[in-house]
Specification:
This protein has 581 residues and is of the alpha/beta class. 46% of the residues lie in helices and 9% in strands. It has 23 helices and eleven strands. The strands form two sheets. The chain has a seven-stranded mixed β-sheet with strand order 3-4-2-1-5-6-7, sandwiched between helices. It has a four-stranded parallel β-sheet with strand order 9-8-10-11, with helices on both faces. α16 links the parallel β3 and β4.
Length: 581
């Protein structure tokens, strides 16, 4: 009988260490439908995951807490896992009975769900949140109601809105504390008051009585607001006073009712100078707010007035950066109908995470998947929620130490350095050439591709007199992904400083291998720049620039041979695929 290694945390999971563990991982990813190769349209590739999760080369992202992972890996049948599955079954039964099926169809749906549930209970390989998603999908496909919780959500939002609109609530939130009188100047006092208001809103947003009870006691609320929160000092450090650079914040809400308070928190953050990207669910997931509710709920419609709603799940980096420049409050979908699972989130969500400085996530479920798991992430994380005993908790997790964020300003700065060098070369009477070549279009050959390009560019520099040649491989920095590189190079390429744009040919590649004293490997045979999606995008730019600068020369394969490539792979150095004719 195979024996799996004893692992205590998800961050210890890696490919290639144990054949039995590798087999278990393949089975785990397949059964949970998080294997990209089997479902590339709906499961994020590793490159997209690395926008969010700090992973080394062989590390595997597990979309669950350490506790759930060790229970799934256990040889025994853990009681805690059994209880979690049972809790999900109760949710599903409640969902079925709330819908109001006739007796025959109710029995049919329950029996179908029971068969699936027993199968997953026996296999003990399904993450509980994925089981909830799967059974919920079964129920929803059997009925015509897209959101069985609609009325409850509307009521919770209305009660929360009514509470916020009370004069007594405003007095509680905005009451001036005596300690602020000790602030050394007005600027410091403003920061103290802003943070105090934010802290009070965080407290209120986690008090279920405020959207479950039509008449909550003001005394109970005031008592709650007066409780200290030492953990909040960490959020204070992350947000910083107003003389520090303002943050871009990705905000993940928890449940309806509380969501109205979340929107109040977001308005407070925006007033303090921050930008906020709010990520909602794509479709029904119990009480969690969804993107479609913004238009149908009058409370939410009023509370989100002025926000820009982005419906595109596959937004490009350029488009997202443009929207962030134009809007302080952006609303997107995370692309899922389940508990936070980064394998299933949309391209837009992944890019929003990457462009933000801080992720604020609310609720116990987000806490388990972000703080309760030992994975490191690429951005600072703040999670706040109430424990079962009603105590408020705020937890933080710093981003991985080795992760570097390349901001839009950083990439513009690097592009500007290259453009300055191009301008100086032109002033010295040199011709400026850009060399577009395969870098990562052949999976597993990125290192070899860089050597091929470097060798050929050295050869060109020896042959061509008075020519300044830009080799993209010489400007790569650790931590830059395909998105960053394409964004930076487009600024350089559209500068109008190019005299010659050369695209790699089959002969260029053969010459490089000859200069290296090697035969052309079969994987490189017949390849040229038309094989690369990156080069295809660059050919489009080249043709566009040639219209504005007719004197610019384009050398290499003819343009018509390029336009068979699919879109550039998200975060990849290689391509998504070739389009069918």
């Amino acid at each position: 009988m195979s024996v799996l290694p004893e692992l205590k945390s998800v961050r210890d999971v890696r490919w290639g260490k144990d054949p039995y563990l590798d087999a278990w991982l393949h089975n785990f990813k397949t059964e949970n439908n998080i294997e990209h190769l089997m479902n590339p349209e709906n499961v994020a590739p590793d490159e997209q995951l690395r926008f969010m999760v700090a992973l080394d080369e062989q590390q595997v992202y597990m979309p669950c807490s350490d506790a759930i992972f060790t229970q799934l890996l256990s040889k025994e049948r853990p009681k805690a896992l059994h209880q979690e599955y049972t809790r999900i079954w109760r949710f599903i039964m409640r969902l079925i009975r709330q819908h109001g099926f006739d007796k025959y169809n109710q029995r049919r749906v329950i029996q179908f769900c029971k068969l699936r549930f027993r199968q997953h209970m026996n296999s003990r390989i399904m993450i509980p949140s994925r089981l909830a998603k799967r059974l919920t999908s079964i129920v929803l496909t059997q009925c015509a109601v897209p959101d069985p919780y609609k009325d409850g959500k509307l009521k919770a939002n209305r009660l929360a809105w009514e509470f916020l609109k009370r004069p007594s609530t405003e007095r509680l939130i905005l009451a001036n504390p005596p300690e602020c009188n000790s602030a050394p100047d007005i600027r410091e006092m403003r920061w103290e008051l802003d943070f105090l208001e934010l802290r009070r809103l965080l407290y209120l947003s986690t008090l279920p009585v405020l959207w479950q009870d039509a008449d909550p006691s003001p005394l109970e609320v005031e008592t709650e607001l007066e409780k200290p929160c030492g953990e909040c000092s960490r959020l204070r450090l992350l947000l910083g006073p107003e003389d520090e650079e303002r943050k871009k914040i990705l905000y993940l809400p928890d449940v309806s009712g509380a969501f109205v308070f979340d929107l109040k928190i977001i308005r407070s953050l925006i007033r303090q100078g921050h930008q906020v990207v709010l990520a909602l669910k794509e479709g029904f997931y119990f009480n969690t707010p969804t993107l479609w509710e913004i238009d149908r709920d009058p409370v939410l419609k009023e509370a989100t007035a002025g926000a820009h709603i982005l419906h595109d799940d596959g937004v490009t980096k350029n488009e997202l950066l443009r929207l962030l420049r134009e809007h302080r409050f952006l609303i997107i979908s995370d692309g899922t109908r389940e508990q936070l699972n980064l394998y299933k989130t949309s391209v837009t969500f992944a890019r929003a995470w990457k462009e933000c400085d801080l992720v604020m996530a609310k609720g116990g479920r987000n806490y388990m998947n972000l703080i309760g798991c030992s994975h490191d992430f690429t951005r600072d994380i703040v999670c706040f929620h109430r424990s079962e005993d009603g105590e408020f908790h705020l937890h933080t997790k710093p981003r991985a130490k080795w992760v570097r964020k390349f901001t839009e300003a950083d990439l513009h700065g690097k592009a500007k350095e290259i453009i300055t060098a191009m301008r100086e070369a032109r002033a010295a009477g040199k011709s400026v050439m850009f060399y577009s070549a395969i870098i990562g279009s052949i999976p597993g050959q990125t290192g070899q591709a860089i050597r091929v390009v470097d060798t050929f560019v050295r050869h060109l520099r020896e042959r061509l007199e008075n020519t300044f040649i830009i080799n993209p491989a010489e400007h790569f920095e650790e931590g830059m992904d395909g998105d960053d590189l394409m964004f930076m190079w487009e600024r350089v390429q559209r500068s109008g400083m190019l005299d010659v744009w050369r695209f790699q040919t089959v002969e260029d590649i053969e010459t490089s291998f000859t200069l290296m004293g090697r035969k052309v490997p079969s994987v490189w045979s017949g390849k040229d720049s038309t094989y690369s999606t990156g080069c295809t995008k660059e050919m489009r730019i080249a043709l566009d620039m040639q219209k504005a600068h007719p004197e610019m020369q384009i050398i290499g394969p003819s343009a018509d041979k390029f336009f068979r490539r699919a879109e550039y792979g998200v975060g990849k150095y290689y391509d998504a695929g070739i389009k069918a004719p």
